[in-house]
Amino acid sequence: MKNIQFKKKYGQNFLKDDSIPKKIVAYSEIPEDTLVIEIGPGTGALTKELAPCCKQVIAYEIDDSLSPILADNLKMYSNIDIIYGDFLTRNIKEDLKNYSYSHLYVIANLPYYITTPILLKLIEEHISVDKIVVMVQKEVGIRFSAEPGSRDYSSITVFFHYYFQLKKLFDVSRNCFVPKPNVDSVILSFTKKEKQLPLKDQELFFQLVRDAFQYKRKTLKNNLKKYDLAIIEQVLSRYSLDLSVRAEALPLEIFVELSNALA
Ligand code: SAM
Q1: Which among 39, 114, 183 is the best mutation to test ligand 1's pocket, defined by most ligand atoms within 8 Å of the CB?
Q2: Does any ligand 1 atom lie closer than 6 A to the CB of residue 10?
Q3: Does residue 46 carry a pLDDT above 80?
Q4: Is 107 helix (H, G, I), strand (E, B) or coil?
Q5: I need a labelling partner for 209 at 20 to 30 A (CA). Which of 84, 94, 180, 221 fits?
Q6: 29 CA from centroid of ligand 1 (Å)
Q7: What is the pLDDT of residue 244?
Q8: If pLDDT is split at 50, 70 and 90, which confidence band does 2 have?
Q9: 45 lines ligand 1 (CB under 6 A)
């Protein structure tokens, strides 16, 4: 790690040794013929463990000053393509057209300042990912896996639960990084559900969930004023609920039913 200028603005906390990347790859259980997308290879600590275990790695790195060190660290692998640029603005579907594969995995130690936008991009742009294994800040991990009724339950939790089965794999101490961050981390896996609840209008579902959580302390009656409240009331009454309920109390199934009733 000598001679590296760590850029805080890019969330650069690099893994210090090989043990954590090896463990991430082992837990990911990558099947044959898999293309792996990595966001933020840094100096390639995880990338070099991924390459021997999959068909192809595409790694997106915003910081092109890392290119000499990445080229050197990864020179023995021919199945890694590094794309220098911002993952958030990149047309991923277009990039994927250049490859053939049977499974698509996203495996990454994410830059923490954009964890949620990265995961939302994968969902909103309908990138057909079979599994996501990511390192996130511990508190964020708790929020993503929160159950209805808990303080951490949010719109993003509902979105993730719609598409994926979430599992915590293992914790990673802040001491495993250089420079050392102020927080501990956790590795989460998101496995695509084989069967999703049927949605009549996906855009409406996303908007409804966002609106329902807009002001967390407000009731559905206040947050969902722009929708047909009579229809919402009717659906809620099937669950012995009324418009005074808050979004954080509603499980995924009720959001799906509300969205389908309004569609
Ligand atoms: N994978 C490396 C590791 O585990 O040691 C580095 C992980 S570091 C937490 C996050 C990496 O994401 C950094 O290399 C950073 O430059 C990169 N990054 C930050 N923002 C990015 C973006 N918008 N698009 C692509 N890469 C980004």
Answers
A1: 39
A2: yes
A3: yes
A4: strand
A5: 94
A6: 23
A7: 97
A8: low
A9: yes
**DSSP per-residue codes, 154-207:** -HHHHHHHHHEEEEEEEEE-GGGEES--SS-EEEEEEEEPSSPPP-S-HHHHHH
Q: What does the domain layout of the chain look like in residue ranges? A: 8-192, 202-262
| Among the ranges given (33-42, 81-90, 153-162), the one the predictor scored with the smallest mean pLDDT | 153-162
Taking the centre of ligand 1 as the mean of its atom positions, its distance from the CA of residue 164, in whole angstroms, is: 24
pLDDT score, position 3 = 76
Length of the chain: 263
Residues 134 and 106 sit within 8 Å (Cβ to Cβ) = yes
Which residue has the least CA distance to atom 19 on ligand 1?
10
- Ligand 1: residue of 36, 61, 172 to mutate (most ligand atoms within 8 A of CB) is 61
Task: Determine if the pTM surpasses 0.90.
Answer: yes
Residue 1 has pLDDT above 80, yes or no: no
Convert the pLDDT of each residue in 56-72 to its tens digit: 999 999 999 999 999 99
Does residue 198 have a cis peptide bond before it, meaning omega lies within 30 degrees of 0? no
pLDDT at residue 184, as a whole number: 97
- Residue 120: is its pLDDT beyond 90? yes
- Spatial distance between the Cα atoms of 161 and 148, rounded to a whole number of angstroms: 11
User: What CATH fold (topology level) applies to the domain 202-262?
Assistant: Helicase, Ruva Protein; domain 3 (1.10.8)
Indicate which residue's Cα is closest to atom 17 of ligand 1: 40
Distance from the Cα of residue 107 to its chain's centroid: 10
CATH code of the region 8-192: 3.40.50.150
